Amino acid sequence: MNAIKIVLGLTAALTLGSCTMMNKPTTYTFKHKAIEADPAAAGVASVSLGNAGMSTTTLTLSGLTPGKAYISHYHAFGPASSNDPCASNGPVTVGFPNFTADAMGMATTVLSTDMAKIAGDAGAYINVHYASDPSTIPICAPIKMVKG
Ligand SMILES: [Cu+2]
Question: What separation in Å is there between the alpha carbon of 2 and the centre of ligand 1?
Fold first, then answer.
């Protein structure tokens, strides 16, 4: 009798635990690349899983050039590194809506997409590029640290 109660209690706790985990966003921190552009640029990517396999990723950025236009993407793990996603030079998998830094150099952009499109190596890192020169990448958020 006591054993049955304990088992039921554990099941309830595990169920609650998994619900909480699904709703809690995972946060990834942007790192500055080894370039001089936007030296104070920083930010976080907050990834939430929703219903029907959808995900929402919110970028909250600061230290950008006020009034400057930016683009951002999820990138897949590329061929140039197997343990540093931001140095792996991978292809774009999904793009965020374009955005412009405000007068304080702050910006946000929100992407809703199928979780499957950014799962595993497909969502290895997030880059923020100058819209005017996509080869200029002030910051990158590593998400999946090891390829494969
Ligand atoms: Cu990109």
Answer: 57
pLDDT tens sequence across 27-70: 999 999 999 999 999 999 999 998 889 999 999 999 999 999 99
Which pairing describes strands 69-75 and 42-49: parallel, antiparallel, or unpaired?
A: unpaired
How far apart are the CA of 83 and the centre of ligand 1, in A? 18
Domains of the chain: 23-142 (2.60.40.200)
Q: Which of 147, 138, 113, 144 is nearest to 35 (CA)?
A: 138
Chain Cα centroid distance, residue 41: 16
∠ Cα 31 72 55 (to 5°): 95
- The rounded Å distance from CA 89 to ligand 1 centre is 9
Name the percent of the chain in helix, strand, coil, to the closest 5.
25, 35, 40
User: 11 CA distance to ligand 1 centroid (A)?
Assistant: 43
Q: What is the CA radius of gyration of the chain?
A: 19
Which amino acid, one-letter code, is at 29? T
d(CA 9, CA 3): 10
